[in-house]
Amino acid sequence: MINKSLTKNPLLSIFLHKGTLPAELFGDFMKYEVRRVLAEQHNKKKENKNAGN
Questions:
Q1: What is the predicted pLDDT for the residue at 17?
Q2: Which of 4, 6, 21, 44 reaches 20 to 30 Å from 38, CA-CA?
């Protein structure tokens, strides 16, 4: 799931392919990305719950 969203960001995928992405930046990005993915999943669960009612 996270890998899919990584490739959606063209700038980031360029860095990843070249292997020039600084580790700190990548760490920060992953923290943000994990949070975003978890929030998306949480919202989907909410929507499914609401749709069921």
A1: 60
A2: 21
Q: Which two tokens stand for residue 18?
A: 């070249």
Distance CA 49, CA 12 (A): 34
18-50 CB burial, b ≥16 within 10 A, e <16: eeebeeeeeeeeeeebeeeeeeeeeeeeeeeee
DSSP secondary structure letters along 3-32: HHHHHH-HHHHHHHHHT---HHHHHHHHHH
pLDDT (tens digit, 9 = 90+) per residue, 7-51? Answer: 566 666 666 666 566 767 777 878 888 888 888 888 888 888 887
How far is the C-alpha of 15 from the C-alpha of 20, rounded, in Å? 5
